[in-house]
Amino acid sequence: MNINPNKYFCSIEAFFTRIAKGKGVPHINPVVDLGNAISLKYTLPMGAHDLGKSSEDICIRLARPDDTFLAFGGEKDETLMCHKVTQKTTDSRHNSVMIDA
Fold first, then answer.
1. Same domain, yes or no, for 37 and 58?
2. Residues 60 and 78 in one domain
3. Do 35 and 65 fall within a single domain?
4. Do 35 and 64 have their domain in common?
5. How confident is the model at residue 74 (pLDDT cuts 50, 70, 90)?
6. Domain count, the chain
7. Long-range contacts at 11-20 (CB < 8 A, ≥ 24 apart)
8. Residue 98 scores a pLDDT above 70
């Protein structure tokens, strides 16, 4: 993809930067709006998935020793530390890190 991850903020950073610049919170739909309100109140990233549009199951769990993650703009798999909260679809080879702490 050849994208510089330092040039683009993650979603929660972009969201708070938008608020700090006085651009307000856009209305998307009631579920996204609720997630945005919770993100603002608790400084906590929130996300939602439309499970009706996914043909795969989504699993949220602690990472396992053999789990890998492909960073945005990355070319090489990274191994996840076992305490990371991750989400994965049933057919996906990679995980998405949900809490990077």
1. no
2. yes
3. no
4. no
5. confident
6. 2
7. 11/45, 11/47, 12/39, 12/45, 15/39, 16/43
8. no
Does one domain contain both 56 and 32?
Answer: no
Whole-prediction pTM: 0.51
57 and 89 in a single domain? The answer is yes
Please check whether residue 78 is in contact with residue 69, taking contact to mean a CB–CB distance below 8 angstroms. Answer: yes
Q: What are the C-alpha distances in Å from 81 to residues 15, 68, 97, 101? A: 27, 9, 10, 10
Q: What is the pLDDT of residues 20-36, one digit of tens each?
A: 999 988 888 888 888 88
How many Å separate Cα 91 from the centre of its chain?
Answer: 18
The predicted structure's pLDDT at residue 101:
44
Give 3-state DSSP helix, strand, coil % of the chain, rounded to 5.
Answer: 25, 20, 55
Q: What is the pLDDT of residues 40-52, one digit of tens each?
A: 888 887 777 677 7
Q: At 95, is the secondary structure helix, strand, or coil?
A: strand
